[in-house]
């Protein structure tokens, strides 16, 4: 009886405790869910941070991005960017020079440098051997041309030896031979001027056709049959129009080249003598488009050849090309107002570098700063 009484009292208390139990259970579940879904501060991963030791940074001369002064100090857009990153992160580093971009990339891939900073274009080929940071500058290729007036005789020779000219001249000669052969077939039995042996008759007919085409015929001979005269009338009209159009086209092309120059845009490159920097990303582009090119070890060498008329165009990264021309070749060489093949510059690191994440963040922070805008303006006059 006593036990039954206890059970009865417990049964009466349970409905009163039920809300409290439900509330407690819901609270516990909510806390657990929040703990699982709320972002937690990740533990600091030292592998993504720059080390305390002195970093070895590779570079090469690529004005205005990296320039070595007579006293051995380095300046330039890329150098200023890296110095800003190093200052903000409290990094110690030393710069080591390489003679070319290719050797710089290869040394970085071997692990000779912790990072490499210059004007290193991010390309698929280079991405296979090194890691790149986020791009810090976007540009493209430019074309430098000579400012010296083009020689008219040189352009006449170039025009007369071009594939288009030879094709047009060949077509005219071929039609003239065809008309001559048809005249011979129509006239050989009715006109002694085109009669005789096949060689004699064909020779006279073709000669007459050439005279008509060039309007040099004296009119002392001509076809007598109806078919021959009809063909002669058609050939006279067609040849006059064809020669007039052909002459006008050649004259227009020569005049345009004399006034504007040989190269005015990218489409002109396949038909001219093109120069490029050996080992640069430009080589791959020209090879891809099957544009023949002459390679130079230095941009200055190509610019000198351009000024002397040995080549017609020099293709290279536009900001580097514009800087060099403005500094050393402004009187002889100019850069066209065209940009093609968009490119980006980045900081190179060995594949799997422990500093890549930290470098990405540092680059993104730096290029959003006011100091970066001032750097671009001071070197290139650009406002970004």
Descriptive notes:
Helices cover 52% and strands 14% of the residues. The strands form four sheets. Strands 7, 8, 9, 10, 11 and 12 form a six-stranded mixed beta sheet that branches. The protein has a three-stranded parallel beta sheet with strand order 4-1-5, with helices on one face. A two-stranded antiparallel sheet has the order 2-3. Strand 2 and strand 3 form a beta hairpin. With 384 residues, it is α/β, with parallel strands linked by helices. It is built from 13 helices and 13 strands. The N terminus is likely disordered. Helix 5 packs across helix 8. This is Transporter substrate-binding domain-containing protein.
Q: What is the rounded Rg? A: 39 Å
Number of domains: 3
Helical residues, percent: 40-55%
DSSP strand tally? 13
Keywords: Glycoprotein, Ion channel, Ion transport, Membrane, Receptor, Transmembrane, Transmembrane helix, Transport
Organism: Sinorhizobium mexicanum
Membrane topology: Multi-pass membrane protein
Protein name: Transporter substrate-binding domain-containing protein
């Amino acid at each position: 009886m006593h036990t039954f009484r206890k059970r009865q009292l417990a049964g009466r208390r349970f409905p009163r405790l039920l809300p409290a139990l439900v509330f407690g259970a819901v609270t516990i579940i909510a806390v657990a869910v929040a703990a699982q879904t709320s972002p937690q501060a990740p533990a600091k991963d030292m592998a993504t941070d720059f080390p305390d030791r002195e970093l070895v940074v590779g570079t090469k001369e690529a004005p205005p991005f990296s320039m070595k002064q007579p006293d051995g100090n380095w300046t330039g857009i890329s150098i200023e960017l890296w110095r800003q990153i190093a200052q903000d992160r409290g990094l110690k580093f030393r710069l080591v020079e390489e003679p070319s971009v290719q050797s710089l990339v290869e040394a970085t891939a071997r692990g000779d440098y912790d990072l490499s900073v210059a004007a290193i274009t991010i390309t698929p080929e280079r991405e296979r051997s090194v890691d790149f940071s986020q791009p810090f500058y976007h540009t493209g290729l430019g074309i430098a041309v000579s400012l010296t007036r083009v020689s008219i005789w040189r352009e006449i020779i170039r025009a007369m030896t071009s594939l288009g000219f030879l094709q047009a001249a060949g077509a005219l000669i071929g039609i003239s031979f065809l008309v001559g052969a048809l005249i011979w077939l129509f006239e050989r039995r009715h006109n002694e001027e085109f009669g005789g042996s096949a060689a004699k008759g064909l020779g006279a007919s073709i000669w007459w056709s050439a005279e008509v085409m060039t309007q040099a015929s004296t009119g002392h001979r001509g076809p007598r049959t109806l078919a021959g005269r009809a063909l002669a009338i058609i050939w006279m009209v067609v040849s006059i129009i064809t020669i007039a159009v052909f002459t006008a086209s050649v004259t227009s092309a020569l005049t345009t080249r004399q006034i504007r120059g040989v190269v005015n845009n990218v489409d002109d490159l396949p038909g001219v003598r093109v120069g490029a920097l050996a080992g640069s990303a430009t080589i791959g582009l020209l090879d891809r488009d099957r544009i023949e090119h002459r390679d130079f070890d230095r941009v200055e060498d190509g610019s000198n050849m351009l000024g002397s008329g040995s080549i017609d165009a020099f293709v290279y990264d536009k900001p580097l090309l514009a800087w060099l021309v403005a500094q050393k070749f402004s009187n002889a060489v100019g850069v066209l107002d065209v940009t093609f093949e968009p490119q980006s510059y980045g900081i190179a690191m060995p594949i799997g570098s422990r500093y890549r994440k930290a470098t990405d963040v540092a680059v993104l922070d730096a290029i959003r700063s006011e100091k970066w805008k001032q750097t671009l303006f001071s070197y290139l006059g650009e406002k970004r």
